[in-house]
Amino acid sequence: MKDTTKDILIIGAGLTGLALAYYLKEKGLEISILEGRNRTGGRILTVSNNETPLEMGATWISPQHSQLLALLKELKLDIFEQKLGETAIYEPTTNSPHQLVPLPQNQEPSYRIKGGSNLLINSLAQQIKTTDVIMGCVVKSIEGSKDFLLVNTNQGVFKTKHVVSTLPPFLFLNTIKVSPSLPEELHEIAQNTHTWMGESIKIGLSYSDAFWDEMKLSSTIFSNQGPVTEMYDHSNFEQDRFALKGFLNNAYYSISKEERLELIMRQLEKYYGQRVRNYLNYEELIWQHETLTYTPYEGHLFPHQNNGHQLYRNSFLKERLFIGGTETASAFPGYMEGAVRNAKEIASKLQ
Ligand SMILES: Cc1cc2nc3c(=O)[nH]c(=O)nc-3n(C[C@H](O)[C@H](O)[C@H](O)COP(=O)(O)OP(=O)(O)OC[C@H]3O[C@@H](n4cnc5c(N)ncnc54)[C@H](O)[C@@H]3O)c2cc1C
Fold first, then answer.
1. Domains of the chain and CATH, by start
2. pLDDT digits (tens, 9 = 90+) for 39-80
3. What is the CB < 6 Å shell around ligand 1?
């Protein structure tokens, strides 16, 4: 057992966990973050490989995401508008030819973080220098007693006054054993709480130029044929690195990377011709293979099912355990905005 008793152990160094440590940083509390992966960020991951930064997780911010926008401002991070263009390449049915359709011009814009979403994670991590972030530390179980909680991990046992889980609640319930057991009602809700984007497949291709602009073709794609279902221009703000990035139909998770890439090439070739094959770098992330994000459901859950459920406002094990994370936020659950709001909500209870 570690010899010190922490005030707070946060499980997970994703946006919720890091933002929570950031909001608590002035309080003089002994805090550690236990992160199972060997990287911070959770569902935020920008990969570069010396080419265009590609977002494999969270990317877009809406103007309504006020708490996230305020946090970005505090951290001196800038945003820029997602380029959509005036038209989109559209495949309406599984066997119809693609067509160019006008995009509504009065749509609310969405924004990206200049330099990549990882900058948000890295800046938060820098701001909480005094908080321990213990990497590769997978929490297995939590045991409650009268005055403290014991947290069992692959790196030993930690003693603490409070635990905040920031895992998706479904993952928490199915991978971390809690004793004494949590209320049946909570089990029922968490067992049916959808993990936002947990099933998704992200793909990105970087190029030495934006050939789609030169060809006067749209880089916005909506397809009901697939495998690519949506795609967008993913060039950087400075317009000196170029990329296309989007989502693959979730059903393509089980074939090989080479097979997926070839199917993507064949689809994009229909619109852009051979040039699409001259990519510098291909990146993909099958989120349902990420065991620290996703574990399969027994039945079917609808997107956002039980996200933001009222029960997540409660604390458990004599008010020592908080079940947080974006899915539990009272507004915009599932999104980065939900993660920031949830961090603030829990920080206010731990003052
Ligand atoms: C493909 C994709 C696209 C997205 N697009 C957008 C978007 O455009 N805009 C938007 O607002 N949001 C988007 N999101 C959602 C956004 O990423 C999340 O809202 C946000 O990142 C969630 O942060 P979190 O900290 O609550 O959870 P997570 O990021 O899931 O963090 C939980 C952390 O807990 C760790 N962990 C898990 N189990 C254990 C364990 N047993 N022990 C220790 N640590 C553990 C994980 O490794 C992880 O770091 C997207 C998500 C994905 C996957």
1. 1-45+118-197+291-351 (3.50.50.60), 52-65+79-116+199-289 (3.90.660.10)
2. 999 999 999 877 899 999 999 999 999 999 999 999 999 999
3. 11-17, 34-37, 42-44, 57-60, 138-139, 166-168, 171, 175-176, 196-197, 200, 202, 287, 292-293, 325-326, 334-339
